[in-house]
Amino acid sequence: MGGPDLWFVKHLGKGSFGSVSLYQGLRFDGTVIYVAVKTSDGQHAESLFREVQILSEFKGCPRIVQCYRVKAELNRFNGCVEYKIPLEYAPGGSLSGFINKFKDNKLPDPMIRDFTRMLLEGLATIHAHGYVHCDLKPENILVFPSYVNNNGAWSSSFELKISDFGLSRREVDSSWWSPSRPFAGTSIYMSPDSVSYGETGKDLDLWSLGCCVLEMYTGKGPWWHKNYEVDDLMKGQQPPIPSELPFEAKLFIMTCFAPRTKDATRLLKHIFVRGDEGTQPSHDVSDKIDLQLANNFVRRNVSKTQSIRVPPAAAQVMPNKTIMA
Asked: Where, in this chain's numbering, is ATP bound (predicted)?
């Protein structure tokens, strides 16, 4: 695959478009390197090439997983061509697995606020390049731990990076949408407008972010209270927000669920991720604001009308050689 020789260590997981395995190698200076290699067959090669083309635009972006290159290789066991992308390896695994390590699968409030800020930074970068991730969920968010020794006492911190751009699209590209498959990514993280009208915009990713914040607080996926149906979204429903969440968290999630009122850069100024002190409203005021936000959300969703846009088919050209990202 070029560069240092790599040796297989273990399988990390399998998804819709291929598998991911951990490889180990030695740099030229003798240091050990670990990479996560995503492998797909020819059937999913188009998605793999699109992903590496997108990731190549995010070189050096601290909130997005880094991609090294993609290359075709012949599988010696079945004789089929496979496509491989070496990616930055996350020792902490996915956010989904990270959540499961905590009591009741719930992360502490300060950590959730910090993680949400990191995800907003990543989405702000993605949207600034004209893309929509389309499949933001804990399984596609990677955790990078770091450890510092201060006078014999070890402390840890964690950084998040967004991964898996195989379903990403240019903003306003709704060529993927059809009544038989009305969602771009994972259905329970999709927004009403993306499901009903095929809208691919910033609001889709921010709706998904609201679902992720809910999951970090509750330890459960969105729509945990019922058997999820796509029709729920088409009726303008949203996942329930537990009343015991901090006021700023409820306000932030409802803002994520509100249509056409925000973008990631603006949400970075939200009180929930700024950590402002001395601005906590009383419970009476909080309840009134919550009720007003809920009423506004229902009124906007029930009263608005939509028209379905039918975009022209977009031709996709798949490279036939190695791409260096």
From this structure: 38
